[in-house]
Write a structure and sequence with these properties.
Number of domains: 3
Helix content: 40-55%
Strand content: 15-25%
Bound molecules: adenosine-5'-diphosphate, zinc ion, magnesium ion
Length: 481
Amino acid sequence: MDKYEIVIGLEIHAELCTESKLFCNCAYTFGASANDCTCPICLGMPGTLPVINKRALEYAIRAGLAMNCDITTYSKFDRKNYFYPDLPKNYQISQYDLPLCKNGEITFELDGELRTVALRRIHLEEDAGKSIHAEVTGDPTRSFMDFNRAGVPLMEIVSEPEIHSPEEAIAYCRAVKEILEYIEVSDCNMEEGSLRCEPNISLRPKGSKELGTRTEIKNKNSFQELMDAMQYEVKRQARILDSGGEVVQETLLFDANTGKTVAMRGKEEADDYRYFPEPDLVHVQIDDEWIDEIQPSLPELPAERRTRFIQNYDISSENAEFLTTTRQIADFFDEAAHLSKEPSICANWIMGDLSRLLNTAEIEIQDSKVTPAHLSELIQLIKNNTISGKIAKSVLDDAFDTGKMPKQIVEDKGLSQITDTSEIEAIVLQVIEDNPGPAQDVRDGTKKAIGFLVGQVMKATQGKANPQLVNQILNRELSTE
Ligand code: ADP
Ligand code: ZN
Ligand code: MG
């Protein structure tokens, strides 16, 4: 591998979460009964006419703006002709030479350094349906068609070939996914196929400027599979080149079971598709006013947010990374930090105990009964010595299960710290009396033994005694001076 430079370019397809499909009124729900989400238009019946979904255009423009693209003022759709059983019209409406967005860039972190990858274009096209074969039906003699997905708006984001390792490709894909989630144009659910990352991979001798022959790997639906596929493909190409062979330009499928890529089809050139302007659709003119309307509706993007967390809240870059994993986590943290005025403490709770609870329950932060108000109240209770950090953990557990406010839980369960000195004194004296050995050790100067006695007092008070007071009183009672 030392001889070669890896070159990767990515095509990312994202299904847009519009209410209806790209050219008809059908709503698409993943998992609906086969062919329930169809109409004559998305079934490709002769004589039907497509009408562009304005919201899909808006979403593509949102993505273009978020990724620093130039939004074209004049765009059009084209027919890409090919036959697939799941493509009912025998052509796909896509965009060829006038995509909605051009250029652009994605910036992300890789091994602690910022990397920027240029985008070539973002365009809109319609998704295809799905063929259902024997693996699903158990019947090798027939296949079935489900056209529910046919006509769902797909946005294709195409990068320049300037990514140089599988790790970098994954970081790039994660950054794109994060932006799409933040701007709420796609649910980016990889398992359900709403986000599909297709890497184009080639190798070239180190130092060479010319691109090598590439292969394209189809439809990866998890980052792990994508990683395995790219690593396998890089090695496969290196072996071919090492033995003096030539890489064949083709489209490959990665089989997660065997861990190998297999040829799916020879690579088509644009000519093979006989692209021509879609005659059933008007051209699209995007005026500046529309862009000016969309621009302010964009939220703060993940990278900007990380920088603000680091600068305004004094959060480490690692923690800022975690706290911006999803927009919902970032919103939660922002609000909790604002309410409690204790950003670092909030960060610790969110990344520690709250994450643990969310993971165990397998739910997302936005579905949790614990809200930023809960967390802020919990932190106040610790700050004003009503409860110890340890009790706070159990209060959070309770709030997580019931949704009750921390104050209420502390009240209902009688969890307030005992801060009454005379009450603690009485317990301390009792503990000293019950444990003469350790008490004498402390008097004799074995300071360690005090920990045991503190433990006994905490036990006697179910953790409710204020630890500082307990220490103070024990020290005073056992001092030999
Ligand atoms: P298509 O695959 O539809 O023919 P393009 O030719 O525009 O479309 O390329 C698609 C993707 O392949 C882009 O992301 C581009 O960066 C990448 N790519 C093109 N040539 C190479 C190459 N030699 N090595 C790696 N990636 C490449
Ligand atoms: Zn339809
Ligand atoms: Mg391609």
